[in-house]
Fold these 4 entries.
Entry 1:
Amino acid sequence: MKFIYYINANLLEKEEFDRVVGQVLKKAEYRRLQKDYIDIIEKVRNTIMEWLEVILEKLFSMEAKLGTSAFGISNGIVIICLILLVILVIVFFLSMKKVIGKSKTVRTIYGEKISSSTKSEDLRNKAIEYREHGDYREAIRVGFISLLLKMNEKNLLYLDPTKTNEEMANILRNKNFIYVDIFQSLIYLFNEAWFGHKKIHEEEFYLWEEKLDELWNGVLNIEAKE
């Protein structure tokens, strides 16, 4: 039965399982999922371990009754169990991949369609084009969205169409984000331009853009807090 002990103690060791899954979730594309799915991973791992322990107990009992002749039978059963276990793990990660895929669907933020391929820098350049054509309302709209996307890339905010600007400001405030006051001032003019359809003058826009530049550069140098 040393073979069985080896499988239980090494191949399915709790720390090893946590380490492998942890490495996957630390990747940039999965980072947001780490907190959301850690409970699921814990439940799956515990279920697998409990299931295996029951099987091993039955095998020990079988060997005690049948003697060493049962060793070959036990090994065969363990191999079958391992195959089933591998299938369970594969199904689990395929399910996770499916959920991740859903999270990459196109979202609409303030009239702008955002997908997994949308880059904050591209939106920023688009905002500059609007500015050069004198369309300051659109420049503010797209510039603000580019900032939100950059914050999403830095894991400061998660792009959620259901959240208001004030709710996002509160999230940053709770994270002790040092530029939250600038973010709040950007929100103020954005709301007036986008929701209030306020006519934005050139001087007013450039003051807003200066604050956007300051916050943008600040975000680039900030490591998001987990």
Entry 2:
Amino acid sequence: MFKERVSSTHHATDATWSKWVALITQRAQIGNPNRPGILEVITDWPEGKDFGMSPEDEVTCAEETPPYNKLTEDEKPYALFTDGSCCIVGKHWRWKAAVWSPTRRVTEAAEGEGESSQFAEVKAIQLALGIAEREKWLMLYLYTDSWMVANALWGWLQQWKQSNWQRRGKPIWAAPLWQDIAARLEKLVVKIRHIDAHVPKRWATEEHQNNQQVDQAAKIEVAQGDLVWQSNSELLMAHWAHDTSGC
């Protein structure tokens, strides 16, 4: 199986694990044996998608961005924090991607329908690259709380490009988006760092605070009626998990 970076203090994953633990017992053997279906959600894999990595592939990580507080004052203007989210609005999934500049104290965002939160995370990277391109930067320091995005920029993109963006004769997930990102990466030096999301306040650094800023910017406004609908859906899922687990 591919090798990726996973932190032992991955708080967002821990929180999701608790939410889905009732499902894991019953469904851990479903789907690709290398990444069971339910774990695709927990580990940031787009559910049902194949990223094109075979079990024997080994990824070499590219250079990593230093912690935000280690950047010099001259480097910080070129640092951008990215995030993406999705939720049900009415009867449709909506996604939102956002980019936050700590020095300029401004955000840039894009929204759409019919895609996942993973798509939104990737779209946020595309937005950040667009900003750097528009401003004619030569260097870009990226910060994300998505392991999928970080690993892609650390090495997966090179693997996909070498395989002509295909896997077993089929395009990889979100191929046009990844191809655009790969083309933009050739125009400037880009470094990326993964940040743990949702850390306790007493452990939060300036880096985490900036991640919270972009997290808020990526949130989708939902009407009260949609919140009730989502709550009912989660309740039905909880009942299903309880019934199928035999508890």
Entry 3:
Amino acid sequence: MASSSPATGGGIGSEDDTSEENLRRIETLMIEAIRRITEIQELMREQNILNSATETARQEERRRRNGCGGWGKWIALGFLALLVDNILGAISLGVAIYWHDKK
């Protein structure tokens, strides 16, 4: 049976050390992996928030463009033009009647 001496790094003690080192490395790698997964989850949450905000802004822009607000000013301007036209018509009719009665 071949046994290793402690000087060569073999034996039961060194196997335990290697196992413990491997366990520490695995533990370190697991902790690092969990940390990275957590970071990725946080980034995904932030991305979802940004996507939601972007979609909300798009919907607001669509509502603003398609809403009556864009047409409201033109409707009000049309009514104002009609009112001014009627006032000018009434003034013209008054002047015409006055002019006719004066003759």
Entry 4:
Amino acid sequence: MFRSGFLLAALACAQAPQPEARKLIAESAAAIKKYQSYRLESIVTVDLRGARMDNHLEMPSSISVRRPDRMKIQSRSQAGTVNIVSDGEHTWFYLSALKKYVKRDAVGSPEAAVGNSGLLPKNLPDLEHSIKSTRITGEETIDVAGVKYPCWTVETAYGQILLPEQHLVIRNAVQTSWISKAEKLSLQNTFRGEIDLAGVSEPVRMSQSTRTTLLRLNPKLLDSEFVFTPPANAKETDDWTLPGIAKPDLEGKAAPAFKAGGVDLAALRGKVVLLNIGAAWCAPCRRQIALFEKLRADLPDVAIIGISVGDAPKASFPIASIDDSNDLLTALSINSYPTVIVIDRAGNIAAYEAGAQTEEALRAMLAKLDK
């Protein structure tokens, strides 16, 4: 009896085996996708010291998501506020500093919204290729709005990181992440390194940290929380015209290979291709299909095809079904559904637009290839 009690106590006190560090990092990147809804608030702090720099920046941000098609992101800094809101029919991008906004007939992908929307610098490197080592350095419990989360601490050391578009190099970089054991969510991280700037002899010491200040998993979020009303003094502007919201640099480049569900891009070489990338739960995508069917009847020499995240809808043209982890979405920087792409006869991307397009706009995209 007593032996059994001691054995159970020993088992209860035994430490859980450590996970493999790189696997844990990979799991944390996708962990948030398993929640149907969430609300997350965080603070990003950036410090730059050296080469006559002494800069400190804090950026509070919040994100609320209700899958599949509701999203609200707000980020604040000394420069102003950035808002991204999807209500199931439209997505708005608003920059308070300019008092301007873009309205897309599209729904957003929350996990891709910030990374692919153009709000971050273009052509950032794939840090995976710069990793020298990843290891678990210990365990720590952190407090998020009064809730205790036991975490693994994971340290990643990097080799030289080249950022040619920004004309800088990052050296001696180390990132530490606090990943919750139960949820596998990265709740806190720090990134430190030295920056070599073009034309500056002295390196700049950089420190960036992200700290989660609020986390609610699977909360009940109402439609009213995903509404954007432009301020009275704000003006609507054309897509891709807001500073920092840049169209992906894909036009003129080869379309990626893709073959599935009756769609084979390589086999269509020699033909003009009109490609619609949508999602099964996307209302603007369903409306776009009817227009594509009309164009298919009017333009028999154009190969009209579709790709759908989730179940493919019925249509008179082929639509392949994929899941949201398909590499094609990353290769084409898809963060809005639908996205329309024109591929020329040589297999290069000739036109790229996010959001549902009018018939006039689609015909104009195709007409570029006749000039």
